[in-house]
C-alpha cells in the first residue's frame, strides 16, 4: 500500500493482464472515495502520453490501460539499459508520480464546498411510482415495514450521488439510498426492464436508460431521456453528479414524456445543423 498526499486515502496497484494496471482506494464505497478518484483522474489525464489507451473509473478503482509493446519499444530508445523498462513497472512509476501531484483546484475538502458542488450538479428526475410503472414497490414496502406512500416519501427525501455510469450506456449507479429501503435483487431477473425504470438492489439505486434484462426491484419509471446515441453528449448523467427524485402522476408522466421526446428531437436536429456548418 502506498500513501497518497490526502491523509487516510491510501491506494494499491496490481496488474490486470498484460495491458492494464488497477489503482484501488480504500475498503468501502463512499462519496469521499469517489471525489478522490475524480481528483486522481484529473492528474492522470494532465500527464497523458500516447502509449496509454484508456482510463476507466469505477466505485473504488481506476484502471489504466496501455499498449505494452509500444511502451517497451519507447523505453528502450535512448535509455540506460540499467533503468526500469518493463511496461508494468513504468506505468506504476508514472501513476505514483501523478498521484503525488495535487492541485488546489482539484480538491474539495470541506463540507461547505461539497454542498456547493451538490447544488451545482444536482439533476431532478420526475418519477411515476408504483402500479405498472413500479411493480415491485409493494415488495419494497413489505421488506422495509413501511407503506408504499412512505417508501416513496423516503426515497424522494434525499439526494443521490452518481458513483459511476455503466452496465448499459447511461446507467447511473447511485449511492445514498436510505438504509431502510435497501433490499436484495429479485431471485429471478426480468427478461426485459422497460426504459426509464427506477430500481433498487442492495444499497444501490439506479435508472435503466434502455430496455434491457435486469434483476433490480422496480419502484417507478421516469419519462426523461437518459441516453441518446445521436447526441455529442449522449448520457444525461456523469460520475460526480447528484440526483433527486420527484413524484409525478400518470397524467404528468404522459405530458413530460411527450415533452422529452420533442426536446430530444430538437437537440438532434440542432446538433445536425451545427455539424453541417
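-> sequence recovered:
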Amino acid at each position: 500500500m502506498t500513501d497518497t498526499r490526502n491523509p487516510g486515502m491510501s491506494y494499491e496497484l496490481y496488474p490486470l493482464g498484460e495491458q492494464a494496471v488497477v489503482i484501488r482506494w480504500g475498503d468501502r464505497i463512499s462519496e469521499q472515495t469517489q471525489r478522490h478518484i475524480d481528483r486522481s483522474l484529473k492528474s492522470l489525464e494532465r500527464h497523458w502520453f500516447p502509449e496509454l489507451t484508456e482510463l476507466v473509473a469505477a466505485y473504488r478503482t481506476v484502471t489504466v490501460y496501455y499498449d505494452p509493446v509500444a511502451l517497451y519499444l519507447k523505453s528502450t530508445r535512448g535509455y540506460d539499459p540499467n533503468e526500469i523498462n518493463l511496461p508494468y513497472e513504468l506505468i506504476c512509476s508514472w501513476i505514483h508520480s501523478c498521484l503525488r501531484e495535487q492541485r488546489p483546484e482539484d480538491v474539495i475538502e470541506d463540507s461547505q464546498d461539497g454542498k456547493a458542488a451538490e447544488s451545482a450538479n444536482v439533476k431532478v428526475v420526475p418519477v411515476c411510482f408504483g402500479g405498472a410503472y413500479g411493480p415491485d414497490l409493494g415488495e419494497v414496502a413489505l421488506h422495509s415495514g413501511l407503506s408504499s406512500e412512505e417508501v416513496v416519501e423516503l426515497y424522494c427525501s434525499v439526494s443521490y450521488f452518481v458513483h459511476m455510469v455503466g452496465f448499459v450506456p447511461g446507467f447511473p449507479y447511485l449511492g445514498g439510498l436510505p438504509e431502510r429501503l435497501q433490499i436484495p435483487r429479485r431471485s429471478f431477473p426480468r427478461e426485459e426492464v422497460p426504459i426509464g425504470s427506477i430500481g433498487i438492489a442492495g444499497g444501490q439505486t439506479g435508472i435503466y436508460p434502455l430496455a434491457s434484462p435486469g434483476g433490480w426491484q422496480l419502484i417507478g419509471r421516469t419519462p426523461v431521456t437518459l441516453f441518446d446515441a445521436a447526441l455529442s453528449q449522449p448520457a444525461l448523467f456523469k460520475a460526480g453528479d447528484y440526483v433527486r427524485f420527484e413524484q409525478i402522476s400518470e397524467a404528468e408522466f404522459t405530458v413530460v414524456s411527450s415533452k422529452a421526446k420533442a426536446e430530444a428531437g430538437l437537440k438532434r436536429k440542432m446538433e445536425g445543423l451545427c455539424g453541417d456548418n
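Residues 250-276 form the longest helix (27 residues).
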